[in-house]
Amino acid sequence: MGIPDEDIAKVREATDISALISQYTSLKRSGNRFVGLCPFHAEKSPSFSVNAAEGLYYCFGCQASGDAISFVRAIEHCDFVDAVERLAGRAGITIRNDADGANDATRGRRQALYAALENAAEFYHRYLLERPEAGGARRYLRSRGYDGEVVRQFKLGFAPTGYDALVRALNVPGEVLKEAGLAYENTRGKMQDVMRERIIFPIFDPMGKTIALGGRIMPEELRTNNQNPGPKYRNSPESPIYSKSSTLYGLNWSKSEVAKSHEVIVCEGYTDVIGFFTADLPRAVATCGTSLTENHFRLLSRFAKRVVLCFDQDNAGQNAAARLYEFERRHEVELCVALLPPGADPGDLSRTDPEALRSAIASSRPFLGFRVDRALAQFDLTTPEGRTRAAEAAIGAIAEHPSDLMRDQYIIDVADRTHHDPAKLRAALEAERIAALNRPEPSVTRSSSESQTGNRVIPNEPDGYEAESVYRSRSTNALTESRSGRDGLMLAIHRPAEVSEWIDEVLFQDPIQRRAFLALCGADELITAIDHADPDASDLLRRLAVSDGAEEIDVTGTLIELVRTAATRELYSLEVDARLGADDEDALGQASIKTGWLKSELEQLRDPAESSLLASRAHDSALRILDWLRAAHPSQSPTSIEEAVDR
User: Fold this and answer.
1) Which of 5, 356, 375, 501 has its CA 20 to 30 A from that of 142?
2) How would CATH label the architecture of 102-242?
3) Mean pLDDT of the region 55-84
4) Which contacts (CB < 8 Å, 24+ apart) does range 605-613 have?
């Protein structure tokens, strides 16, 4: 057995899905729902919709859909139980898990690591704030401009000198401590702390869970033990909950501002991130000892469309350009570089000249422009020789860009700055690109989940699904039902009490609509209907659950239109049957009576809005026709919307 159904229901009920999804992409209220850019595929116009009341989301662009649990599974690439446990922890709910076997062991291992790292971060944080032995660390942090507010915001800590202070404080199995990178077994067979006499920087995932620690050694004059202090920075190893190539320090704090400004600043270290925050630029993140990877770009593109690299000048151009251009293109972000004064880093500049730091970000250059500027700056542009070498160096940088138009724009710029004929530079550029074909290029590895959300492959659809009508005309799963059928289902989902007396499966002519309606009738909750319906009906219910406009639908008008559509089809069938049975006078007579009555009633449904009397007659006629349709086609469904409402 796994997690009991009642515990899963508690987690769903306790989770604010709009708040959850807002941690990964910016949402704005639109009527009774929230809309934003889809976190599962690149787009320029919002097509992602969230129904907070029902706890559901749907993307009209890539068709990613589901509830809070499926969202966490897709966005965090975890299994069902792990997603439920994460949401339960977020909501403060204790769940029961009777599962056993390898999956349960893996989940238990992950939970043990989370708990150990969370408790370690808290231990180090309290030690820094409260213990007299941490006085030197507090003085050092104040000298760096970190007051108590900064220490608490970033949960900074201090690892004491003692060799096993953390081991004794946590009292957890040695294997957990070793895998979490918190302790190791020394030559005497004792567990010993990894972090000693270091400032501790906890590393969190986007949801705020502690997944690793970084430790900076104290300055020599403040250390009590200078024997083999180790490297300046010591970081947690990778583990089942921590992947350096997918983690960005500070994203848990900066994501709201990043989503609001559509810009993220990427720097090199923990203190750089804190420096940006103290300089009133709270949209910075840092890689964790790796160069930028596609996983980083995939994560950042959910929040921002402009990525500003803020490294020191020696490192700013060291990333593989061809790879970054590919990431930039694939994830539709604008990659820029901020140039700091020589020898400066964001952490120092935030204290000495915060305005210069803000100016550097505001004046950041596109990545290719930065590389061209850097190439030209190496040579003397006052001499023909210098201008020629500068042009050749710039061409080498331009050649790596994948866009023909972008390359040509920069060729024109280089021609102006080096006094060369653009045609000759274009010829040199093509020669460089041909030569590059014979050189090995850095590979770009796509993860197995790159084009998927859950098990759903994202189609290569254009952006800008701002209205469902666009989706209907473009998607391979386009809605085929009539507008009245769609409105009827919308009412059954959002205003069931108002239609419970008359809505019936006989009114739905489209088979997908009918199956969706029957799924609603057979379930006590919308989420249950979605889970139990066939894929097409489930997809339709998800879309309608997050669609706006139910409040504007005319209940009586929808009833009349549904009845008119169903009755017109029934009239056609009766006339066909009558023609086929023309030799049977009794059958022909019966058919004639039915068709005559039905035509007469249908006449009452014409233009009911012309007067209140006609509207009343149309409503009464629609109910009579509906009773007749029900009698002609007895329902096979086990329940009705009315019964579902009563439940």
Assistant:
1) 356
2) Alpha-Beta Complex (3.90)
3) 85
4) 605/560, 605/563, 605/564, 605/567, 608/557, 608/560, 609/557
